[in-house]
């Protein structure tokens, strides 16, 4: 068999620049400090601004930098520790849940979610919006989709929307016997609404955790939680739970 030519391909210029910039962040800048503008940085390192942008984007993806509205590019703090679903048989909103309900509306879910819930085309479900804050910083936003069949007694609740309605939906959901749950994690890009809630720019890298909750032999609810990729690092334990650690020296295996 012939040998691959990849070994002879030189390291991309932006990748080398990313390494140089990373060393500069460690030696010359402190957490929260604003970086010089792109023109000055490109001139300092003798590269094109397009190359610089690629390096900065990679450092942002790795959690070394943050782009903040009206501020610029700053040095990111270490990733914060946040436990995600360490309990396998607990409904959202149960005691000890770190999420804060913000609103609840009745909407048609995205096609991907409708497929998981096995609802008919155009069927509306209860959509609970929740947020999560750690150390005063927003780290995640969640949309929890719950079909009417999972909360049949909700008609007695007077609140038409808002946090009170969200808490009522969650209380009704907890009346079901939770049989299990599973999760999927993927890298994505922040949509406009999530970006605003997470204080990020649209298109910023995020981690999307989709959780299915099972009751009575079917999917009773679906959670789509969006985490800041620059803030969170996921590790998977033997229990099947997901945790997020902030120790910058640790690496997920």
TrEMBL record:
**Family matches, as Pfam families:** GntR, UTRA
Q: Give every HTH gntR-type domain span.
A: 11-78
| Superkingdom of the source species | Bacteria
Keywords of this protein's UniProt record, alphabetized?
DNA-binding, Transcription, Transcription regulation
Entries under InterPro entries matching the protein:
Bact_HTH_transcr_reg, Chorismate_lyase_/UTRA_dom_sf, Tscrpt_reg_HTH_GntR, UTRA, WH-like_DNA-bd_sf, WH_DNA-bd_sf
Does Transcription regulation show up as a keyword for this record?
A: yes
Mind telling me which SUPFAM superfamilies this protein's record contains?
Answer: Chorismate lyase-like, Winged helix' DNA-binding domain
What name goes with this protein?
Answer: GntR family transcriptional regulator
Q: What is the organism field in this record?
A: Streptomyces lutosisoli
Q: What is the lineage of its organism?
A: Bacteria, Bacillati, Actinomycetota, Actinomycetes, Kitasatosporales
């Amino acid at each position: 068999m012939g040998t691959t030519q990849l070994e002879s391909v030189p390291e991309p210029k932006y990748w080398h620049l990313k390494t140089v910039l990373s060393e500069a962040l460690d030696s010359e800048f402190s957490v929260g400090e604003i970086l010089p503008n792109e023109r000055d940085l490109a001139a300092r390192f003798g590269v094109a601004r397009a190359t610089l942008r690629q390096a900065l984007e990679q450092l942002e993806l790795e959690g070394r930098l943050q782009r903040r509205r009206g501020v610029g590019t700053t040095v990111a703090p270490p990733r914060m520790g946040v436990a995600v679903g360490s309990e396998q048989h607990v409904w959202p909103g149960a005691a000890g849940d770190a999420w804060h309900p913000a609103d609840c509306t009745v909407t048609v879910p995205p096609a991907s979610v409708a497929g998981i819930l096995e609802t008919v085309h155009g069927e509306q479900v209860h959509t609970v919006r929740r947020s999560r804050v750690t150390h005063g910083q927003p780290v995640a936003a969640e949309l929890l989709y719950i079909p009417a069949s999972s909360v049949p007694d909700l008609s007695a609740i007077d609140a038409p929307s808002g946090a009170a309605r969200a808490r009522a939906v969650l209380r009704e959901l907890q009346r079901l016997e939770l049989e299990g749950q599973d999760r999927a994690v993927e890298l994505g890009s922040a949509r406009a609404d999530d970006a605003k809630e997470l204080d990020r720019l649209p298109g910023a890298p995020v981690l999307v955790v989709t959780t299915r909750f099972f009751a009575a032999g079917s999917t009773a609810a679906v959670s789509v939680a969006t985490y800041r990729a620059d803030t969170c690092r996921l590790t998977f334990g033997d229990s099947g739970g997901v945790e997020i650690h902030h120790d910058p020296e640790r690496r997920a295996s």
